[in-house]
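Regression report. Comparing outputs from two consecutive submissions.

Submission 1:
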Amino acid sequence: MALEGDVLSYYKKETKKEKCGEIRLADASEIAVERAADYKKHSNCFKIVTADRVYHICTDEEPDMTAWIEALNKQKTGSGPSSTTQVATPVANGNGHHHEDAEPSSANEKKMTVEDFGFLKVIGKGSFGKVLLVRKRDTGKVYAMKVLTKSKILKKNEVGHTKSEKAILVRLNNPFLVKLHYSFQDTDRLFFVMDYVNGGELFFHLQKEKRFTEDRVKFYTAEIVLGIEYLHKNGVIYRDLKPENLLLTRHGHIIMTDFGLSKEGLHTKDSRTATFCGTPEYLAPEVLEGNGYSKAIDWWSFGTLMFEMLTGLPPFYCEDVQQMYTKIMSADLQFPDVISDTARDLLSKLLERDPARRLVDPAQIKSHAFYASIDWAKLENLELEPPFKPQVKDDLDISNIDTMFTDEPVTLDDDEEEEDSEENPPPNNGNSDWDGFTYNPANAAKK
């Protein structure tokens, strides 16, 4: 383990090459000795209690445990080292043992299961599963349930991304980000229960209308600016900004969704990561170069998305992916006549190949002439009237969802089940990998 600022990172091995996760001390309500006798047969344990889970950390010796608790509490209260100080682990051999509660720890706490929901429609599909429109049986409330197949996630080594998505959804709260209400699992699947946003994907509306008016683009992109700014302030890089991941509420506001490729822990301006991921049309040049990148890539994707909204296609689009990558790296940026001078100026600064010269400061973006008519305070409070309001009859309306999804049979079954092979994960689907996945705010409030 390593403590840097108010973030405690824990690793799979002593070498600290493979990070398993991190705990923000600001989110902890308690850091104390684990009073239960020998937690899971481990002694010298202490616990860190957060809203969504309890972390149990075991040390080799009791003095090590005491030293950790003291160091963590000092940092939490602001009397510890500065945020740039690396704190040497007081655990013998630099090794600690970390555990997360997989399920609610009290017999009085509710364990959510798929039986708590009734299935209504399929409303989306992805690489690892599908999204269902569901109704919670005890309240009648309607949600979107994202169902992921564990075996597929394991086979494609996406466990880290999936756990990070859950952690991000639990921790962040913003009017332009989708909200997670529950998460749980069974032997074969993971379940995210989120807001049902039924104004349709931005992709759905853009396909119908070919391109949007500049006023409409201005409104949508301004709300996205606030969403990205919030993510970056909280150390999250989005990495998959595209029309398919942007939903419209029934009132016409933007909701950013699908944080499966997002990454936590980038809390400084210079924080970098290197995983090659994202959707080809929206990848920044530095991602293609493969030498690591910063949160600046989200602003390149933002510029690409803005260009697509104004014209109908991303700026360097090509059916041949390799040719498209070449164009992203070297082709001149061409503006059709439909793009105004102020929009061209903003796009030129966003689609700057050198991330050091790219416009990435949200304050400067918001003060650009393109957004001169936007009252940012009112926008953030959802007080500006959206330029377009989707036709939505009620909470169950699916008319803005593509029929290629809604015509699907409503089942949990994966339509592309993999045949058994030596390459496939074992029958238990690596369930030890999903400890701590369960989230129920009603239980968290009792802790």
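Submission 2:
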Amino acid sequence: MKRTSAILILLTAVAVGLGCGTESDGDDNGGFPDIVISVDYGDQNDTVNHPDNQVLPDQVIVDDFGNPIDTNQPKDTNQPKDTTQPKDNSVVPDEGGTDTNVDTCVEPTSCAFETIEGFRDNCDGTLTDTTTGLMWQQVGGDHQLSSPNDNLLKRQCNTAKSGCDNGFFLTGWRVPTIDEVRTLVRGCPAVEDGGSCPVLESCFNADNCLTAACGGCGTGNGPFEFVDGTDTYYRYIDPRFLSGENGTVYSTVMSGTNTNKTTLDSNLRFFYILNYSGKLDVLKPAQPSSEGVMFCVRDAG
């Protein structure tokens, strides 16, 4: 029994001496191989045995001058307005459009070319006054008598699509003066062209020029017969002249001649003629505005 215990103690001592010995620095060759742990510390030069876990830098976009452009920042779409710059209050004059009609038209193929009281129907949207040689639009533009300005009237005529000549609309339309509008009147001598009513393009002050002689010749005495349903009227201006909005139902033919600032009213007013009475007048101060029709005119030649 004592012999067996002695043998066990001896074997244990040998095992301890062989396996445990003194503290090793990792190079001992005592039969137990070292456990090697490879650690990559990200050294940039260590690319052979232990590749780096490299982090690629962001791509930098530069402008033409080499300055980096930040493309990752959100765009500011709510830029404040620059209110420090003065506004340009200059106003470009309105010349009333351009008289350059290039649209094509269809030449009339059938028409009576009827002439009544000297006005010939040209069957192309125009009437020619054979006594003066002036050509007129058959369909006019409607205006409030107190509101139009010179440029508005010019625009109507400069952009007019009336008449037809070799397949193109006629140009050269202009705003008629009160002198020219007076040539439309038939059957009221004082208001007709050359009559005793003093209002002219050269006499436009309503205080001085608008006299009793301009008062017309009464309702129902005109030479032009106009039938509206069961009613018959007599006008002083050819009823073939039509309102663009109201057709035959209108009463006032206006001119482009306006009265200057009068003693009672500082606004400009355009002279007109009432086709049912032949009266030549201008809108009075505080008088409700009514619609007038303006027909552009041109030389027939």
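Expected: both submissions complete independently.
Actual: both completed, but the second showed a warning that disappeared on reload.
Relevant detail on submission 2: Residues 2-19 form the longest helix (18 residues).
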